[in-house]
């Protein structure tokens, strides 16, 4: 089996997150809409931490699922409570420190979520390396090689991301495992092992010798970079005793394999001299690999092949070809095929993560969001009122000029548009039949209302008479409040309703009178369009002259202007934007100026729309 290195996990102590986070929420954060209990979410978060750090974790994807879900929740919380001391002692030990009887083990305790995030992220990268190693127990297993390459690349990306976080001011004096030099070495090691996984994959897939040589050459380069980083004085003491030997041996071994496969390319091209030179170089590199550490069977299997090919081609050259053997230093460098690349984690490491505290907002953000909503409502109402006022003024001017009716063709050849629209409206509402039906119902309704009022009046009168009779009979023993006093509000209401019925009856008479006056014209509008057109009196056709054409063009502009205003009002009312994310970015800034943020963001959101509204109104004003 190939020697693949898995990174150990950091250890931590068990702590309770529930009570300290409750205190933080009550002092620094508020619910976005209404008070919400976070007890269940906090207990779930506490459980996630325990499962991610305290219990024994298997080298399996399920462990990664728990760890990444916990990391995502920390990330969500960190955006809402940045730079806050949580009064939670997050204590983490150095992953590479084995401790001693006298000195104990290296550890660091901080009270910020940022430190907890960094340590969990380190463990995610370490677990990804362990899962990768568990999949590559057999390098001839195609699915295992693909999964190993995937998780080694993910581990490399995780450590690359960790390096950018660990270099921040969150950790002033980190433990050795979190220092930039350490993380750089681990990131490089993971990438080299991912490339090595791809090497065994291309071998299993029987790729061309030239391709295999390039993949091996890139693997050698990555192990060479890793070796330099691991041999730095600042980190050399951290590693297990055989780690540096394994990396050094692999670096030399992959140099040998790259030269061996390139020699096969030379053999196919009949380039005997270069083939010999590369086999010599492969032999020397394999000896170096053997001296650096214990060679695994994957490398040992190539030793007889290299030796056999070298002896055979050297013999052929001595007796047949007599080709010049170039110096090893003058050989053209082998190309490099970089198949492995770091997979950088996204905003969410686990696609199934849901923010358990989604309704929670920093107090400053909640205040800013509420103020922005008020500002937004003010802007929307003001701009709508401006446009509606301008439209009313425009309609008034048009009505005073009898437009657009004055431009309609009344020669009798076709029905004017304004009359067509009015006729359609009358027909849709039922026409004369519906009006007459409603008018015929009015006397019965009026009579029914009077009967109800009379019945109510009778009941009140009977009740008062009964009360008076009983009061006279029992005298001082009848201590109930007099009905006349109790019923006074009801009598007042009765008088009001009687007045309303009388007023409605008078209004009915006015409506009926107006209807009788205009009944024939309403009936005319109910006729089919052809008959209505025939019954209309013919007027003189509107002259076709430049002034009339110009007026028609202006009316088209007016219609377009009104349509644009309706669209602008719709955009104003539907312009829903969630400002929480924008105000989150401002939240860490001390003494955030809410007014400045509101003004800037309201201009950003509504500025372009307000400019279009002003342009629309300016077009109307330009016609005066």
Automatic annotation (TrEMBL):
<protein>
    <submittedName>
        <fullName>Programmed cell death 6-interacting protein</fullName>
    </submittedName>
</protein>
<dbReference type="GO" id="GO:0005768">
    <property type="term" value="C:endosome"/>
</dbReference>
<feature type="domain" description="BRO1">
    <location>
        <begin position="3"/>
        <end position="394"/>
    </location>
</feature>
<dbReference type="Pfam" id="PF13949">
    <property type="entry name" value="ALIX_LYPXL_bnd"/>
</dbReference>
<dbReference type="InterPro" id="IPR025304">
    <property type="entry name" value="ALIX_V_dom"/>
</dbReference>
<dbReference type="GO" id="GO:0000281">
    <property type="term" value="P:mitotic cytokinesis"/>
</dbReference>
<dbReference type="InterPro" id="IPR038499">
    <property type="entry name" value="BRO1_sf"/>
</dbReference>
<dbReference type="Pfam" id="PF03097">
    <property type="entry name" value="BRO1"/>
</dbReference>
<dbReference type="InterPro" id="IPR004328">
    <property type="entry name" value="BRO1_dom"/>
</dbReference>
